[in-house]
Every structure is written in structure tokens, then in C-alpha cells.
Amino acid sequence: MSAGQSSRAPVNGSASKPEKAVVLLVDDDPAVLTSLKFALELEGFSVGVFQDAQSLLREHAIGRHTSLVIDYRLPGTNGIDLLQRLRARGVTAPAILITSHPSEDLRKRAAAMAIPIVEKPLLDNSLIAKLREQHGVAESRPST
User: Fold this and answer.
1) Cβ contact 70:96 at 8 Å
2) What is the pLDDT of residues 99-114, one digit of tens each?
3) Among residues 123, 132, 62, 133, which one has the least CA distance to residue 26?
4) How far apart are CA 33 and CA 67, in angstroms?
């Protein structure tokens, strides 16, 4: 996937089955996008990936069953600024900021916006647990 390219998750469920929880990931590291997409899909989430802020800002289907997982360090901006731009556009989807070694200032800014931070490397289930909490999803994986 080239920079700026997105892989969109389906955001509209069919009338016959419940809508899947959607997670939109924004990270400029293709390895992080690929591994998180795989892990979240295994957990039953529908996942869309974006390699930069501009790609997400062009997304028009950020619906009520959507959560945002945004890396703090992005080309040309940061995750907090991206979320502020989304909020200014009326996007109210819950968000999680991912980053390594967050400063005290970053923690305060995120807390002021009620945005949890999950620290990289993502070695435990903290991210999945926060997403499940946001979506009210049970702990068990979907049956295959």
C-alpha cells in the first residue's frame, strides 16, 4: 500500500445481521498497520487502514459503530491535532492514541480530550480491551 492510500472497512451492515464494530487505524508504519489490522480482524472487528492524516480526513463514512486508533507521530501532523480537526468537523467517534514514550504534556492533552493512550510496543491486549470497552463487545472471539 503506498503512502496516502487507504483500505476502507465496510461501514454499513446488512439488515439480516448486526453491524460489525469498525476500527479505523491511522499509522504511517505499514508493518504496524498490517499487524494491527490482522489482530483486530481476528477479534471480530471490521478494519480500515490509513497511512496518513489526509487519507482519514477524506473518509466520509465514519459512523456510529466506528472507533479511531491513531498514532501520535504522523507525517505533517500529530494524532492530537488530527483528532481536533475531526472533532471540529463533527466526528464524535471514540478514539485511542497509540505512541511510544508519551510525554507528560501529551498525556495531559489527551486526558483533556478524554482520549486514552496505549503505549507502543503493543505487547499486551490493552488496545483490544479498550476497543471492546468502547464498543461494548464481549471478551470472546467470534466463532469461525
Assistant:
1) yes
2) 999 999 999 999 999 9
3) 62
4) 15
